[in-house]
Design brief:
heterodimer; A: 126 residues; alpha+beta; OB fold (Dihydrolipoamide Acetyltransferase, E2P); 3-stranded antiparallel sheet; 4 helices; 9 strands; 17% helix; 35% strand; B: 360 residues; Gyrase A, domain 2; Elongation Factor Tu (Ef-tu), domain 3; 6-stranded mixed sheet; 6-stranded antiparallel barrel; 8 helices; 20 strands; 34% strand
Amino acid sequence: MNIPDNLKYTKDHEWVRVEGDEAYIGITDFAQRELGDIVYVEVETVDEEIDEGEVFGTVEAVKTVSDLFMPVGGTVLEFNESLEDAPESVNDDPYDKGWMIKLKLSDPSSVDKLLSAEEYKELIGE
Amino acid sequence: MELKKVPLNDIHEQLGAKMVSFAGYNMPVSYTSLLEEHKTVREAVGVFDVSHMGEFFISGPKALDLIQKVSSNDASKLVVGQAQYSCLPNATGGIVDDLLIYKMSEEKYMLVVNASNIEKDWNWIKSHNSFGAVMEDQSNDYALLAVQGPKAMDAMQKLTDVNLEGLKYYTFEVDEFAGEKDVIISATGYTGSGGLELYVPAKSAENVWRKVLDAGEEFGIKPIGLGARDTLRMEMGLCLYGNDIDDTTSPIEAKLGWITKFTKDFINSENLKKQKEEGVDRKLVGFHMIDRGIPRKGYEILDMEGNTVGVVTSGTQSPNLGHGIGLGYVKTDLSKPETPIQIAVRKNQIKAVVKKLPLI
């Protein structure tokens, strides 16, 4: 299982890559394996300011649909539009090509309480 | 409640299958990728373990009388070596279960029922057995392997002397298969891609599974999970009990009129005959999504003005088509093919269109 050390994680199996006061969000290798073949990522919240824990979109595998939750509060700046045509990037490359949204953090210090790679590994029993 | 295990449980786990609880059984939902598994069945051949299904044997001089009483199709039309799709109507207009009925010999039939309904079906049939037919539940004695796909017959031929290409759809033979005696070799399936279903004595399951995989290797055989079984059957518009049909849906509403024969008297037949003659208010239809969105069980179906006209009972992204497909009940006046409808997907109304079955 690939759990990069340089990212932050949530118990909802999302990852966060912080770049200054902005952050990229996606789902973890563990999450994509659990979901199976991903066929659709729907994000209709670009330009909206969303609180931590609220839904910013949905990810659909062949069999299931799952909500995507904001790991931290912020304004959604961008949706990874390459996922429109290639949702399978979330399976193939969850931490790079499979990123889902870029956001402007409401409070940059809010990322401090996210899980480290070590803590996330423990959560999923790795 | 502890999950029941099929005879091949350990083999699935060794293969790295993702296991899920289904109808009280620990079952493989996928081995590698659902999309790959789906494609394997459509283009080559795959093998499913569906040993959770139930097998009842009904025998004796009154066996047919009992079957005719509880089932909707006309089992008197069966000849030995032939199988029939049927359903068990309840007394209130719904369906107890759908099933296959095999005529094993003049006075012996096998009923193959859904795993989730084994106990319910058994009790239901038993409660109508005023005929004194002999009933045996052999669900735990049989494993069931479905070998499905356009290459299934070719791939399996070396395992049996039965001429598989010559085995007509919905017929079967009881013969030696993979060195095991008394295997029911049936030209049936739930995928629309052709192939066999093999009813194997439980103790022989592992041997048959391994030989099926070996024999199929040169044809690209793969083990297939229940996930792909569901997408394959949805593309064909085949009903799944608990989704598209249940205790509250009538066979006429579910467009199972073709297995509801009024050539005989059966449970609730008078009421169903009336439904057939007078028409019903809602019908089960298949549909394609026009705009992007994936229908799921329980989503509302709307007319073009946005009024609720029904509900989705099964839905997925079709692996073959690459867009959403589904089944659901709609008001009868919207059930004609090519009628535009909408599906409520979260907060959006997504355009869809009623389609003839199969959906691919």
